[in-house]
Amino acid sequence: MAPTLDAIPPVRSGKRGRPRRRPDTLHADKAHDAKVRRQECRARGIRPRIARRGIERSDGLGRHRWVVERSHAWFSRARRLPVRDERRPDIYEAFTFLQASLITLRRIQRFC
After folding, report:
1. Spans of biased composition, class Basic and acidic residues (predicted)?
2. With 1 labelled, which of 9, 44, 47, 72 sits at a CA distance of 20 to 30 A?
3. What tens-digit pLDDT sequence spans the chain (112 residues)?
4. How far, in Å, CA of 40 to CA of 29, rounded?
C-alpha cells in the first residue's frame, strides 16, 4: 500500500495556497486490516478508517465506497468500455466521455 499512497497526486480543494499532498482519511475494507497498513497511513499523516477483522462490521464503510462502485457499474453498462477492443487510446477516451455524458444526461433528466 505504501507505493500507492506515495503516488497520490496533489488534492485540489479550490482554495488558495499550496495544494494538499495527501487526503485526510483512507477508507478501506477488512482485507487491508494489518498493523503495518495503519502505520503506513499514520506515517504519511493520513487517518486510516479500516474495518477490523472479527470486530467491526464493514457496513459503515459502504456509505463511502458505494458512490465509486456505482459509478463503475454505470460505465460498465456501455459494452465497449469494460472489454477494451479499441487500439487507439483517443477513441477509447472518446467513448468514455460519451458514456459520462449519457450518465450525466440521465441524472439531469431525473430532476427535470
Report:
1. 22-39
2. 72
3. 888 888 877 777 677 777 777 778 888 877 788 889 899 889 988 898 887 777 756 555 555 556 777 788 888 888 777 777 778 888 888 888 999 999 999 889 888 7
4. 16
- Number of Cβ within a 10 Å radius of residue 58: 16
Is residue 81 within 8 Å of 99, Cβ to Cβ?
yes
Q: Which residue has the cell 495544494?
A: 19
C-alpha 4/C-alpha 7 separation (Å) is 5
Alpha carbon separation from 52 to 48, 55, 76, 109 (Å, rounded): 11, 6, 31, 41
C-alpha cell at 38: 495503519
- Where residue 38 falls (left for φ over 0; alpha for ψ -120 to 50; beta otherwise) is alpha
Computed over its alpha carbons, how large is the radius of gyration of the chain? 18
Give the residue from 54, 52, 3 showing the smallest Cα distance to 29.
52
